[in-house]
Design brief:
alpha/beta, Rossmann fold, 7-stranded parallel sheet, 3-stranded mixed sheet, 12 helices, 17% strand, binds nicotinamide-adenine-dinucleotide, binds thymidine-5'-diphosphate
């Protein structure tokens, strides 16, 4: 079947993997990537598909009501995969309003346009909202997030994402808009902006710079390789049931400090350094305000209902990720030479 899919945030980390997968695997679909190109958006991520006939890029803000309407009408959009968001917790602590604007009002703008455009014919329409496990709050030593775990967001980022999830469900319940939501755990892999833990530390190790570990490094995250997430999005887009939520995760929990030591060791080997050299760079710094202790996803539902399972073991995924950053030094250099340095100095006060 032919489809005109609007993907928002397709120039970002996860978005670029989703765009590439759909453009390559579904030549019948028209993929329209709408992205504002904030500091996190990078068209370099999409070089390999930018001239494909079934791909179109539109530079626009999801909060711009007129532009969103124009895009829906110009491309007869019949499905949305919504990834655009402000995504970094540390930035949400310094600038919560920007997160409310993009994550809540931007989502509402898209939902409302979808409702207006599709009102008379909801057949084969879908608004697919990409969310995070952080909406569920923070776990203690045991337990996993399930789809019916009560929302308890604790950072401005997760509060804004939680609010956007509620609006999506409200549009499903009130206007009958066909929707699906997935809440995924922490992603890692190629093309991630080097403000997030894994690419930041790979970059700092390469440049022999301090590795700023928040608090005692005991916080736990559940890590999933980004291409496994993109594959899950493809499956949910095609097979997910209207109104449902699916949790996505790798059953792959790591205490930050243990993960960091693995990265140090792999990097030492790849850079021909003595094993243990990079660990010397570990520097404990002031903890993040309100730092969530543990996230962990139970992804049984998507596995049993839709047949999705992670394909990569973590050791393989981290190796592939480190290789990518080492082979794409220009990609990192281009980012680091811009506003990044100013953000970095303000955030860490380390040299
Ligand atoms: P990212 O920060 O790498 O990319 C976000 C993209 O959205 C960028 O290309 C940016 O230019 C674009 N964007 C931001 N504001 C916009 C606006 N107002 N209008 C149009 N485009 C805008 O983020 P990511 O890590 O790829 O995350 C993508 C989505 O997945 C987000 O919704 C995030 O909440 C969710 N998510 C991320 C993770 C993770 O570990 N990264 C985990 C679970 C869920
Ligand atoms: P991050 O990649 O920012 O993702 P999230 O906060 O959405 O989980 O951080 C992952 C973990 O690493 C989190 O517990 C915070 C920690 N962290 C550090 O210790 N130092 C850092 O410089 C960063 C960016 C994160």
């Amino acid at each position: 079947m032919k489809k005109n899919i609007l993907i928002t945030g397709g120039a970002g980390f996860i978005g670029c993997h989703v765009v590439k997968l759909l453009v390559n695997n579904y030549p019948n679909y028209n993929i329209i990537n709408m992205d504002k190109l904030t500091y996190a958006g990078n068209l370099e991520n999409l070089k390999e598909i930018e001239n494909h006939p079934n791909y179109k890029f539109v530079k626009a803000d999801i909060c711009d009501i007129d532009k969103v309407k124009e895009v829906f009408e110009t491309y007869t959009v019949d499905s949305v995969i919504h990834l655009a968001a402000e995504s970094h917790v540390d930035r949400s602590i310094t600038n919560p309003f920007e997160f409310a604007q993009t994550n809540i009002l931007g989502t509402l703008t898209l939902l409302n346009q979808a409702k207006n455009s599709w009102l008379n014919d909801l057949e084969d329409k879908l608004f697919y909202h990409i969310s995070t496990d952080e909406v569920y709050g923070s776990l203690g030593d045991t337990g996993l997030f399930l789809e019916d775990t009560p929302y308890d967001p604790k950072s401005p980022y997760s509060a804004a994402k939680a609010s956007s999830d509620h609006f999506v469900r409200a549009y499903n319940n009130t206007y009958g808009l066909p929707v699906v939501i997935t809440n995924c755990s922490n992603n890692y892999g190629p093309n991630q902006f080097p403000e997030k833990l894994i690419p930041l530390f790979i970059n700092n190790i390469q440049n022999k710079k301090p590795l700023p570990v928040y608090g005692k490094g005991e916080n736990i995250r559940d890590w999933l390789y980004v291409e496994d997430h993109a594959r899950a999005i493809d499956i949910v887009f095609h097979k997910g049931r209207n109104g449902e939520t699916y949790n996505i995760g790798g059953f792959n929990e790591w205490k930050n400090i243990d993960l960091i030591k693995v990265i140090c060791k792999v990097m030492d080997k790849k850079l021909g350094r003595e094993i243990g050299e990079s660990e010397q760079l570990i520097t404990y710094v002031k903890d993040r305000a309100g730092h969530d202790m543990r996230y962990a996803i139970d992804s049984t539902k998507i596995s049993e209902e839709l047949g999705w399972n992670p394909s990569l073991q973590f050791e393989e995924g981290i190796e592939k990720t480190i290789n990518w950053y080492l082979q794409n030094k220009d990609w990192l250099e281009n980012i680091i030479s811009g506003d990044y340095q100013e953000y970095y100095n303000k955030q860490y006060n380390l040299r």
